[in-house]
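ESCALATION

Customer reports they have been waiting on this structure for their group meeting. Please prioritize. Original submission:
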Amino acid sequence: MATFLHRIGRFAFRRRWLVVVLWAVVLGAVGAVAAGTTNTASSNFSLPGTESQRAFDLLDEKFPAANAEGASARVVVRAPQGERVDGGANRAAMEKVLAELKDSSSRVAQVSDPFAAKTVSADGVTAYAQITYTVGAADLTDADHTGIDEALETGRDQGLTVEASGDALAEPEQGMAAEAIGFLLAALVLVVTFGSLVAAGFPLLTALTGVGVSTSLITAVSATFELDSSTSALASMLGIAVGIDYALFIVSRYRAERADGYDAKEAAARANGTAGSAVVFAGVTVIIALAGLSVVDLPLLTAMGLAAAGAVVVAVLVAITLVPALLSFGSERVLGRARKRGGEPAPVKTVNGAPRATVGRRWIALVMRRPAAVLVLAVVALGTLALPAADLKLGLPDDGSKAPSSTQRKAYDLLSESFGPGFNGPLIVTVDDRTPATAAGTAASLGKAIAALPDVKGVSPAAFNQAGDTAIITVVPGSGPTTDATKDLVANIRSLAGKSQAENGARAMVTGTTALNIDVSDKFSAAIAPYLVLVVGLAFLVLILVFRSILVPVKAALGFLLSVLASLGSLVAVFQWGWLKDLFGLEQTGPIMSLMPILMVGIVFGLAMDYQVFLVTRMREAYVHGADPRMAVETGFRHSAKVVTAAALIMISVFAGFIGSHEAIIKALGFALAVAVALDAFVVRMTIVPAVLTLLGKHAWTLPRWIDRILPEVDIEGEKLARHDPEAEADRGPAAETTPQLSGRY
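Update from on-call: job pushed to the front of the queue and completed.
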């Protein structure tokens, strides 16, 4: 691996224009394809293998009109206090609003009359009308959205309270792109770290190239593969973060190799062979973890995982090819503060003849002085942060989870107050049988049985399709969609359905958004443990291969679990409990998005392995080269601390930038990943890891001989480069004799 990447680095350095032009052609080609794609991302959600999805599929087949894909909106009207909507002036005002809605667009298919449809509350204070369109939500124009807004304002001007919900409404615009915020923060970290605009610019340029290619590809295939709108955002988030970090590691190693006396070409090649090997390994772990999300068998999660994995693949390819080429353009200027203007190495800052005690030196000295105390304190701190995770509640976002200031949330609250908390989460019970008479009899008896269950506010008469073999029964719970009482009601209805099918053979199923939400939560709860075993087991096996140790992988896996649980606890505390919600601009708290925990596990696993590789391989390298265990830990930490710190800060900056997103899943995921990276990099990898390795001593680097014999050798640090490439030492300049102390001080 190292020698292969060394050759790639040499080739890219020598043929810099060819490499740059090739990437420019790739970017232009995929960009042109994406620009020519007229289809938009899909908003469909399916959950194969669950009862609610089977019922949805049945409705598609038997009631195609009921499952039409046209956009829709629900307009809720409330009369002034003490009045009714059917009063003379209020009714006239409401009819004016409905007429304006009907004329707001040629795409409007129908606007229901609340009085004819009997969608007026029992006290006559609130009514709602249903609007359907002939096209999907993605095909509505700004003029269509403006038409809805103007109609709402007309009703408000007449003294009515008018709010709306549904996918026909325009999504709120973000003030500043989340990607731009994170990107600017990452740029600042790079400038401070390198002290060179050129060195800082290379990772930013390569990250933009990689993200441009990957997001363009996702856009081009989004309609074909029905990718969700958040898929591109996740790929962009990860692409920027790992793209900058991977380039950072290679540029940093290049500066170190130059400080060791190698000329520009050889330094770039060696940086690609050493840091590039670690980049490939780290990238592969992220890719496997993300691709492994497909085991959950949820199309949305599979698409997000594969798209994000593809973005990481592109980031790795850009890092090991384009970065060496760019180094050829700025081989001297990229050194920044590492050299004087005349090209000589900058002197090492000393105090009384000894190297100055940097923050990293002081930190590792503290950790190694009291390793047991530091370990206990760090574990207790992470355990405390993880405690809220015990109260984790999963759910799917709906209008009730939107900001209280939004019209969707106001409409949700109006309906809950006037029609009951369960109105916003009705259950749909389907009954089907080959024999219409059996279907009719079962629907009638089942409807009566459901009405007698606890927490049922209303049961509608069965509605049959034209063939008479399938019926729909709408059940309105007495409690809200996310309550335990509603979950129990779904279980009770399914129990009744099972007994009914055993008696007469007709199949009955429960579906609807609320039932789907419950099934999603159950599916993820069942999948999280097997997936954790999969990724942790993978981490253990791969790290044994890299570090030739049993205890190091055990420590790495346990540290990963600690950081994941602590970040989940932080997510619950802020997004579910509401702690510090104002600090993060969070207007509404509620259940955590169902796919969040397992998606976070997959991403954090890969990122945790990044820092594990870049930090601990330097420690192992020092030990293999003759340092005693304590000195190996200290030396490896000194050589890696600054670049790992910079990499973590960049990741945190990029992820934190997405907290400003209006998409609930992206906002929460950005927060969770920023916290997870901070905890894993600074608490687990840079505190717990050196403390544990100090306590273990030489036992940390031992491996049973029978295991060692069967494992292939992985040369992450490029120890065989000199043997495989005789040109290496020939390219080493005279500075090697005078500047070895600069190695690792990047």
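Sent to customer with the following note: The longest helix spans residues 513-547.
Escalation resolved.
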